[in-house]
Amino acid sequence: MKIRVTGDYACFTRPEYKIERFSYPIITPTAAKGLVKNVFWKPQIDYIIKKIYVVKAGTFMSLGIIKEHKELNGLSSNALRTSLKHMTVLKDVEYVLDVEQTIISDKVKASKVNTVSKYKEMLRKRLCKGKYFRTPYLGMAGFPCSIIEEVDQAPVTLDTSLTIIPGLLIDIRYKNSIPEAIFADVVVKNGILEVPTC
Question: Domain for residue 16, yes or no?
Fold first, then answer.
């Protein structure tokens, strides 16, 4: 199925920037998967992002965020201190996600009949009614989706400004409860990113 998402702002943080956030120029497959899971989540299902259609790549812009935190001053912790942090985000983005829903076999109870079509229909209803498991966002909780809806077909008009994206975060896998990040150099051809299978 294909899901259209739009947002005023988005930040898909590059992991090499430790202090200030700096966004990838495109939604990462991990962020796209998390977005769909926020719409409809069950422990026995997973999502595979097959393609990402870039309708609007957005433009980079810098945001300054003022944060307040308590400062320890002797025995008193009531003093507030403010700090300014910058982040580089994307403004005005739109994507169409080609999503495949799969069943995680080891989490399916034998007493219940679980089918992909059943859960796909439940996902469709959530999208249609706007009743989500959690608020879908574009990379960060502070950047919720403006529109998230199912579409019948791939978009005709695409943004072709993106080409080669080195070191894109493709997936996060867990081995013995230890996360392992999977990166790959990808090519966006004519506005379409075909997510590599690693």
Answer: yes
Query: Which residue, 176, 174, 189, 192, is CA-closest to 30?
Result: 174
Domain count for the chain: 1
Measured distance CA(85)–CA(142) in Å, rounded: 15
Structure tokens at 43: 């422990």
Residue type, 102: T
| Intervals of the chain under pLDDT 50 | 110-111
Q: What is the phi/psi pair of residue 149, to 5°?
A: -155, 155
Tokens of 67: 């944060």
Q: Which helix (H) or strand (E) holds 123?
A: helix 116-129
Entry pTM: 0.87
Tokens 């965020």 -> residue: 65
Beta bridge partners of 63: 87
Note whether residue 171 is domain-resident. no
- What are 87's two structure tokens? 């982040």
Looking at residue 175, the DSSP 8-state letter turns out to be: E
Helix/strand/coil for 116: helix
What's the token pair of residue 107? Answer: 């989490």
